[in-house]
Each structure stands twice: as C-alpha cells, then as structure tokens.
Amino acid sequence: MSKRGLSNDEKKKRMLDFFHEKQDFFQLKDVEKLCSQEKGITVQTIKDVLMSLVDDGLVESEKIGTSIYYWSLPSHALNKRQDAISKIENKLREETDKNTYYKEMLKNYENSQDDEQKRVSLLQEYKSLVDQRQVLLKDVDLFKENDPKIFQNTLNSIDETKKACNQWIENIFSLKSWLKNKFKVDQNVINKQFEIPDDLDYIE
After folding, report:
1. Exposed, middle or buried, 49 (CB in 10 Å: 0-12/13-18/19+)?
2. What are the residue ranges spanned by the domains of the chain?
3. In terms of pLDDT, which residue wins out, 42 or 58?
4. Cα–Cα nearest to 154, from 71, 59, 88
5. Is the CB of residue 130 less than 8 Å from the CB of residue 172?
6. For the whole prediction, is pTM greater than 0.70?
7. Are the beta carbons of 162 and 132 closer than 8 angstroms?
8. Mean pLDDT throughout 49-61?
9. Taking 50 as the threshold, does the pLDDT of residue 175 lie above it?
10. Rounded to 5 degrees, what are φ and ψ at 97?
C-alpha cells in the first residue's frame, strides 16, 4: 500500500534510489507499478515525478520503437550532482570576490567626494548579494540530501561567504558611525538618506 504525505523532493529521491538499485530499463507502466509497491509513491504522482527527474537530467529516457524507456545509473547521477556543485561553488567564489571588492570600497569612503552615489550603489549590490546567497543556500539544501559528503566543501564556502557578508555589514556600521560623529546626524536620518534598512543586521 502506497504511503501518503511524501514531499516532492522525497518522492524524487525515492524514485532515483529505485533506478540506482535496479540499474535496468523500465517503461512508465513498470515504474508506476514498482515505485508504488516498493517506494510508497502514489501512482497518480509517479509520472510527474519521473518527468521532473528527466528534466533535471538525473534520469535518462529513450524512445525505442513505439515505447519509451527510462533508466538512471549511479555514476551518471553523481556526475550531474558534481556538475551542479561545481557551478554553485564557482558562483560562491564570485560572490566572495565581490564581498572583498566592496569591503575595500567601503574603506575608501571617508575620503570620497561623491559618497552618496557610491553608498547607494553599494547598498544595492549588497541587497543583490544577500538575495543570491539565499538562492545558493536553497540549491545546496536540495543537493546535500543526496550526498552530504560531497557538499561539505560547498557548505564551508557558504560559511566563508557569510563571514565576508558580515564583515561587509560591519563596514557599513562603521561608516554610519563615522557619518554620525562627523556631521552630528541621527542614525535614522542616515538610514533614510542612503536607503539603509533599519533592520540591517549580521547574518546568522
């Protein structure tokens, strides 16, 4: 009897496990029957889950005559995950480099003659950086369920990116303090003038 209440990610993982355990070729009707019986996936959802795995490149499909066959080998899925990890790690390195660049820019702010324009630009870049980091974290969460060891290096990179983001935020706070002391301006006025969020805080 099929189990209920499985999330889509869990269904995909169970179906991928099914292909890797069998290491054989199956038609849709066979996948529906066996995944329902052995993996507890409801029959009504199996086709959609299978198509999702095909779209992700984790399951191969080929039309032979009038029939379509599906299969997935562990080595193929591993290569796909490693490719995805490599792309994420490259993106994280890019974001870390951006953090370093903007940190240096902030150090030079006190001597700049057009602080307002640069601060606005940097703040926008900071917001974009945080948004991209959240997307990367979600991607890592999806992959790490399949093979935590492979993703450990990626998680370490995320930790370094978090540290860099927090250093960047520390520089913003330092700059606000400098403006407040030099021009005797209230912090709320500085936030409003340069569109700095009132709830700007370190990333946990």
Report:
1. buried
2. 8-72, 77-193
3. 42
4. 88
5. no
6. no
7. no
8. 89
9. yes
10. -65, -40
The residue behind tokens 């399951």 is 59
d(CA 195, CA 120): 7
- Name, in order, each residue with C-beta under 8 angstroms of 125's C-beta and a sequence gap of 6 or more: 98, 102
The tokens of 112 are what? 């700049």
The CATH fold assigned to 8-72 is Arc Repressor Mutant, subunit A (1.10.10)
- Judged by DSSP in three states, 203 sits in coil
Q: Which residue has the higher pLDDT, 174 or 109?
A: 174
User: Over the Cα atoms of the chain, what is R_g?
Assistant: 25
**Using CA atoms, how far apart are residues 145 and 98, in angstroms rounded to an integer?**
29
Place of tokens 């959609």: 48
71 phi and psi, to 5 degrees? -160, 165
Between 180 and 54, the higher pLDDT residue: 54
Measured at the alpha carbon of residue 109, what is the angle toward residues 107 and 111, in degrees to the nearest 5? Answer: 110
Q: What is the rounded distance in angstroms from the CA atom of residue 197 to the CA atom of residue 105?
A: 20
Least confident of 17-31, 122-136, 148-162: 148-162
